Amino acid sequence: MSAAYNHVPNNEEDDGNAPVDVELTRISETTTTEESSDNEYQPEVEVPNKRSHWQDPVLISTYLTLFLTIPVLSLSMVFAYQFTDRLWGMWPVVLHLHLRLGISKWQFNNASDHLTHQNRSYRLACSFATALDIGLFGIVYPTVVVILTYVFYRDADGTIVLDWRREVFLLRVLAGIGVIIAILRLGMGLCPCCIRILQRKFYYQNWLPTFFAQSNNSNGSISDTTRHHISKTLRFANVGVAVLNIICVFSVFSHFGPWPEMSVIPEECDPLDTTLCALPFPSFHHLEEDATTNTGWRVHLRGLPPLRGGMTLHPSFLNDLDGFSTMAPILFYMEGLKEAHEGSNNMVNKLQGPESIGSSVTNQSITLLINVDDNVLVAHSAEIDYLDPDRPLVMVIPAQPLQHSTHYAVAVVNATDVNGKRLPQSKGLEALLGQKGSMQYSRYMDVVLPSLQHAAPWIDYGNDPESVQLLFDFVTISEDSQLGHTRATRDAVIEHVGNWDWEDHVEVVSELKHDCGPDSLIARTFHINLDVPSFLKR
Questions:
Q1: Does the structure show a pLDDT above 80 at 198?
Q2: Which of 124, 219, 249, 452 would suit a FRET pair with 168, their CA atoms being 20 to 30 Å apart?
Q3: What confidence category does residue 266 fall into, taking pLDDT thresholds of 50, 70 and 90?
Q4: DSSP states of 312-338
């Protein structure tokens, strides 16, 4: 209660000594619903001001995250996945987005808590997220875009490859928006620092968030409904990115971690070699009869090892062929051959490498490649493949392309270990030769072994069956199956461009003139853009 008082003298003359009558007149009175004692502390209420938004710009930072950071990083994740064709390719971007969403959610939900804003851990976390955005968007991502463009998308003449110009444009747009985000983050980081310095110098009042008031006002506060929607959006986005982050972790581990053990289905494995299910390769084990093909056979790949990351290879496009390649390496494994090869300097019978291809058709070679149809040996080189140091394969590489639609066989004969002792016959071959009623046994005894003895007369299988330690056969692809699509493409291109006016389809990009001399026979180099028919789309 407050009152004002007025002094009113009476009508009697005041001689200076007489007592004075004082009239108390109440001018105004103010009452309050609650009275507090003089000793109770009354906090001073801060008047909201627009500068508070920039002292701790939580709402502005949240809007930047929602409308710029999330879209840019999401598009970057899509591009990273398309570029690597693996989920682990986008994991760094997913980590960045997960961290930014986590900090934004924490920062937004605690924006109205004055004590939280004074917490050092809170400020360090927000500062770290801001510095991370500035570093990644402003430096790292633009640098990655430049490197990708220069290494993968740049043509020999320095221009961008036509087929990739749209992707490069998208990359550059994303990098540009990222730089804008970095600049905005930098501004929102510097403004609070400047305001706090001014506060300490000019003794401003402590800041309290003004835009989390209970109702909208001209100072930028947001309603409870808007605050709830923003918090819910951040929460759901954070959960979604967290799930994606876990998936990427599994992708990284499966790709760069140890290869999983292959689950072996005995029916799919070739019994000739139990080292790996698909060995030896190629062989009749991966063929099935098909009267509709030129060779009478069709490829049916079985028991293939997993790809990197444990992914299963689906060989449907290879199973359309009617035989195996005429030039691909032939692979097998035999215990003791690696050690014998490494110590075979003084041995007569050994693997004949590329420097001694001529000896591969003589009795000095322990690997024989036989043309079963013509009963002749085929020149080749045989080497150890050390990709798997524990169980290195032997690669048999024909010296020239094999004939199409032809029956071939590979034999390992008279191979010895490092001590010169003959290696035992493979258990798979031994078991096969004991199955007298099988189709494979009949083919070996009636066709393959007679052809081997005719082509290599120093092999006497009848008297010394242990001299043949491994034997497998296969059929090569027909000419039409191997070259038919390629030739059809060639013919279609010739027919399509036959009536072209080449001035409309050739663009000279650059011309380099050279000084012809003894060391240079090139006068000019042209870089051109040439239109060609595309067969990549159906």
A1: no
A2: 249
A3: low
A4: PP-GGGTTTSSSB-SSSPEEE--TTHH
Over residues 9-22, mean pLDDT: 44
Residue matched to tokens 């997220």: 129
pLDDT in tens, 39-58: 444 444 444 444 444 455 77
Tokens describing residue 502: 């080449």
Q: Which single residue is written with the structure tokens 């004002």?
A: 4
**Nearest-CA neighbor of 399 among 357, 346, 427, 367?**
357
Residue type at position 292: T
C-alpha 244: how far from chain center: 14
- Determine which of 114-128, 199-213, 257-271, 301-315 has the lowest per-residue pLDDT on average: 199-213
Q: Which of 419, 414, 421 is nearest to 456 (CA)?
A: 414
Q: What are 312's two structure tokens?
A: 């299963």
Task: Give the number of other Cβ atoms within 10 Å of residue 222's Cβ.
Answer: 16
| Ramachandran assignment for 152, one of left (phi > 0), alpha (psi -120 to 50 degrees), beta (any other) | alpha
**Which residues 6+ apart lie within 8 Å of 177 measured at CB?**
68, 72
pTM over cut 0.70: no
The C-alpha atoms of residue 430 and residue 465 are separated, in whole angstroms, by: 10
Nearby residues of 473 by Cβ (< 8 Å), 6 or more positions away: 283, 284, 372, 407, 408, 409, 410, 443, 448
- Cα 101 to chain centroid, rounded: 23
Give me the sign of the Cα torsion angle 37, 43, 44, 49.
negative
Helix (H/G/I), strand (E/B), else coil: 301: coil
Q: What is the mean pLDDT of residues 196-212?
A: 56
SS3 for 416?
strand
**Does residue 311 or residue 163 have the better pLDDT?**
163
Q: 368 has which bridge partners?
A: 411
136 DSSP assignment: I
Burial 111-127 (b: 16+ CB within 10 A, else e): bbeeeebeeeebeebbe
Per-residue DSSP letters for 211-273? TTSSS--TT----HHHHHHHHHHHHHHHHHHHHHHHHHHHHHHHHHSPPPPPPP-GGGS-TT-
- Indicate whether 77 pLDDT > 70: yes
